[in-house]
Amino acid sequence: MKSTMIVFAINVLLSGSLFAQNSGSKQNAHHTAAPNERSIATSSRASIEFTPITGYSLNGSLNLYKAKFKMKNAAHYGGILSLQLRPDFFGEFSYTRSKTFAHYKDFVAGQETDYDMAIDYFQLGGLKELSNGPLVPFGMFALGITWFNMQTHGVSDHVSFSMALGGGVKYFFSDRLGIRLQGRLLLPMYFSGGGLFLGIGSGGTSSGVGISTGVLAVQGDFSSGLIFRF
């Protein structure tokens, strides 16, 4: 009887020690897996994105005094370099070129002429991501210059200050590769004049600067491209 009780007690002790070892190993596995999960989540957010893009530009027209300068819609290509400044915000530099031609029509003289040209956009701005996950909608704003690069001999180029408003979506197939779809409203501007004044009155001296601007042409584009994340 005593020997039976001793064997039973030994079996209970052995089973208890095995249970403790198994539960301890499970806890250790849980604690070791957590840092790996955190590191994967951290590494999935890279700091630089490069996106070659192509698409279609709506190049608009210039309404001149008794004349019109119509720029034909055409394909474009370029690239976007994005630097992550916050978890949901990127600073971006973008370049696009649309190779096209323009049709000039003088309503008074009845003269019509075609010009070869390219439209180059150099923009610096920011992109705000609106959610996390594989599918990421975003909004964007940028300022820069637009170069109306006249290819016809003897015609002068024109460089204009411009801004861009837009939005789109990113979709990531993996941590390093995705696709970007976007649309932009492009507004090249002109400065029609400015002035500086300085006055002295009973309230003391006063001064100011005034500049008048306008939209040269309303343009836009739609682009797509592969995102390479580093």
Explain this structure:
This protein is an alpha+beta fold and 230 residues long. The chain contains one helix and eleven strands. It has one helix spanning 2-43, and strands spanning 48-58, 61-64, 67-71, 74-86, 89-106, 112-129, 135-150, 158-172, 177-201, 204-215, 219-229. It has an eight-stranded antiparallel beta barrel. The radius of gyration is 32 Å and the shape is elongated. It starts with a helix and ends with a strand. The model is unreliable at 1-10, 12-44 and 201-207 (pLDDT under 50).
> Biggest sheet, strands in spatial order?
1-4-5-6-7-8-9-11
What is the subunit arrangement here? single chain
* Strand fraction: over 45%
Largest sheet composition: 8 strands, antiparallel, barrel
Based on helices, strands and strand pairing, what is the structural class? alpha+beta
As a whole number of angstroms, the C-alpha radius of gyration is 32 Å
Tally of DSSP helical segments: 1
| Count of extended strands | 11
How helix-rich are the residues, as a percent range? Answer: 10-25%
Shape: elongated
**Can you tell me the residue ranges where pLDDT is under 50 for at least 5 consecutive residues?**
1-10, 12-44, 201-207
Distance between the termini: 73 Å
* Overall pLDDT level: 81
Series of secondary-structure elements, N-terminal to C-terminal: HEEEEEEEEEEE
Ordered list of secondary-structure elements with their pairings:
Layout: H1 2-43, E1 48-58, E2 61-64, E3 67-71, E4 74-86, E5 89-106, E6 112-129, E7 135-150, E8 158-172, E9 177-201, E10 204-215, E11 219-229
Antiparallel strand pairs: 1-4, 1-11, 2-3, 3-5, 4-5, 5-6, 6-7, 7-8, 8-9, 9-10, 9-11
